[in-house]
Amino acid sequence: MSKEKYYNNNRGRGNSKDKSKKKEVLPRLKGGRRRNPKDTLNLISNVSNFHLQWNKLTRFDANGSYKVISDEYKDKKIEIGDNFYLQLVERQEKTAEISTTKVKCWNQTTSSRMIVGMGGASVYENSLTLHHIYGFPYIPASGIKGVVRSYLIRCFFELTENEKEKYPLEGEEKVVKNNIQKRDELLEQKAMEDLVFAAIFGTNDKAGSGSTRGNVIFFDSYPTKAPEVEVDVMTPHYGEWYGAKEGNLYSKPPADIYNPVPLTFLTVKAGTEFKFILGEQKNNTTLSDEVKNNSPLIKNSNKKLTSDFSLTKIAAYWLQRALSEHGIGAKTAVGYGFFEEAQ
């Protein structure tokens, strides 16, 4: 068969449309339309895992142009069976007691809305950290360790006047950004020179003396009962100015001449109680009373800490302070992520 004849016989195959069949349209759902394939939607539309509901059953507006947070997520309580959360935290405590020593556990309650993992990968503009198996919001151990570590560095370690003059916060934007980074590195290095701080969090190899592992183990923090999530909104007024490239800022001034674009996002409701668990590495090295008493972590505790306290209790005390005074997660500067004082 010639190429021309083959082409004529097969022309249009795969592109023809059967006009006798009507296009099947998925039913319109409250709060926006889901764009999943029909067989997928039929399979998982009734799934109870909130992580899957949030990330896999995304809703779009009437035109299908952008993603929306539907009404079903407003004031949603994430229930997972009877006594599930209590059993989960009890199991985690037992794990800590088996794998570590000098375990310290306590409950602490949020005093404001909380957003952990807002900048994470998400089908929406903003994210929320959800347990990848059970689907409820929680606080990862890395975030807990990071917030108390940052809190201690900012509160108790300072630069000298010579160091501040060496890295001034004046001049061109690039220079200032670089100097801020240099200042942060200097503060971090000063903190790691403190033996108590180094024993709790470990050290890196930036000073050339080798890295060490921290002796305190931070565990993920889970809610003690079914948590509730709430929809919140922020409305940037200067979106085009924020998105302007460097060197082009003056062409798009931060003025009320743009269209505000409301952005909705999920938060954990205020009044949610979390369980915090810390433990200490087995067979770790001990610090002398003299070393502990000379540490700013002991000196600045208003006599609530002494050299008799274990590293776990020292870390727990400052974590409780960090949660109530500094907050955790995103938008702490405007009041999100704060906890009540631990009892």
Task: Based on the model shown, name its key terms.
single chain, three-stranded antiparallel beta sheet, 12 helices, 34% helix, 14% strand
Fraction of helical residues: 25-40%
Question: How many DSSP H or I helices?
Answer: 12
Order of helices and strands: HEHHEEEHEHHHHEEEEEHEEHHH
The fraction of residues in strands falls at 5-15%
Low-confidence runs of at least 5 consecutive residues:
3-30
**Major sheet details:** 4 strands, antiparallel
Helix/strand class: alpha+beta
Rg estimate, integer Å: 27 Å
CA(first)-CA(last) distance? 87 Å
- Please identify the oligomeric state: single chain
- Strand segment count: 12
Shape: flat
Please state the average pLDDT score: 83
Structure description:
- This protein is of the alpha+beta class and 343 residues long.
- Helix 5 (141-156) crosses helix 7 and helix 5 packs across helix 12 (311-325).
- The chain starts with a helix and ends in an 18-residue tail after the last helix.
- Mean pLDDT is 83; it is low at 3-30.
- Among the domains are: 31-73, no CATH class; 83-130 and 219-343, no CATH class.
- It is built from 12 helices and 12 strands.
Concise overview:
By secondary structure, the protein is of the alpha+beta class. The chain has helices at residues 3-10, 38-44, 50-56, 84-99, 141-156, 161-166, 173-193, 195-201, 239-243, 289-293, 296-299, 311-325, and strands at 33-34, 59-60, 67-68, 76-77, 101-109, 202-203, 212-213, 216-218, 222-223, 228-234, 263-268, 273-280. Helix content is 34%, strand content 14%.
SSE layout and pairings?
Layout (H helix, E strand, L loop, with lengths): L2 H8 L22 E2 L3 H7 L5 H7 L2 E2 L6 E2 L7 E2 L6 H16 L1 E9 L31 H16 L4 H6 L6 H21 L1 H7 E2 L8 E2 L2 E3 L3 E2 L4 E7 L4 H5 L19 E6 L4 E8 L8 H5 L2 H4 L11 H15 L18
Antiparallel strand pairs: 1-2, 2-3, 4-10, 5-12, 6-7, 8-12, 9-12, 10-11
Helix pairs in contact: 5-7, 5-12
